[in-house]
Amino acid sequence: MTSALDARFFWLSFWTYLAAFLVFSVYAAVRKRGVGIAATAAFLAAFALHTAGLAARWIVTTHPPLSTMYEYAVTMSWAVALSFIVVMARFRRMVLGVIVSPVLLVVLVIASLLPKEASKQLMPALQSYWFYIHVTLAACAEGAFIVAAGAGIIYLIRRGAGAGEKDFLPSRDLLEEIIMRSLRIGYPLFTIGALFAGAIWAQYAWGRFWSWDPKETGSLVLWLYYTLVLHQNVRGVWRGKTLAVLAIVGLAIAIVSFLGNLFFGGMHAYI
């Protein structure tokens, strides 16, 4: 069973996000506040359509849209958009949209290539509240990690920009703060959702907390990576450019972890 309604909402949200990205790019070039407001309005409209698509999918399937890789991808991209909106509201830096928007679009493109079949009847392993907690928190955490990587990219661009462009871009201190706040939000969500809730769900679904499944292993590697990054940052060792690079590398690890079961199979093969 497929839902034409949710597919239409996601299609419209994709093109609206694309329009927002283009207007954000114009804003970065002309530095006019009115253009930035227009880009933000387009992004918020795309987010509303995205939310409507998730709601339509939920209504059609009668369960939260989290049970397949396609649903996880569109939900994770929604979490990226939400994280960006929160950061933009807090720091008033619309230029971040130039980086976050294309990353979000890439996630939606990946989602479009995945099987979209919707089913009202979930397999027994997915019929657990722990599964929904696990996937929801993991998606929100990875949304925060993507925003951190976006701020890291702008940090590196700022280092190589000319004097005039540096005045326009957020300060290095502000970008570092955005990176750290995003990581500090994402890390506990990932710890609780991807690891602890995931282990409890695995015990419920498969009879054991840990099985060294490719996605489990990838999540553990990602958690250990961010644990090290945050630990070293608290010690005052990994700051500035190093932190920006590490935020970007973390995104690459997260992408590999997300796609791992497509290539290596495992018990997460259905999601």
List the helices and strands and how they pair.
Elements: H1 4-30, H2 33-61, H3 69-91, H4 97-112, H5 129-160, H6 163-168, H7 172-206, H8 214-234, H9 240-264
N-to-C SSE series? HHHHHHHHH
Give start-end ranges of low-pLDDT stretches. Answer: none
The biggest beta sheet reads: none
What is the typical, i.e. mean, pLDDT?
83
Overall geometric form: flat
CATH architecture of the largest domain: Up-down Bundle
- Can you tell me the CATH class of the largest domain? Mainly Alpha
What's the helix count? 9
Structural class: mainly alpha
Q: Within the CATH hierarchy, at the fold level, what is the topology of the largest domain?
A: Four Helix Bundle (Hemerythrin (Met), subunit A)
Which characteristics define this entry?
single chain, mainly alpha, Four Helix Bundle (Hemerythrin (Met), subunit A), 9 helices, 79% helix, flat
Structure, described:
- The chain is mostly helical and 271 residues long.
- The protein folds into two domains: 1-121; 123-271, Four Helix Bundle (Hemerythrin (Met), subunit A).
- It is 79% helix and 0% strand.
- Helix 2 runs antiparallel to helix 3, helix 3 packs antiparallel against helix 4 (97-112) and helix 7 (172-206) runs antiparallel to helix 8.
Task: Give the gist of this structure.
With 271 residues, this protein is mainly α.
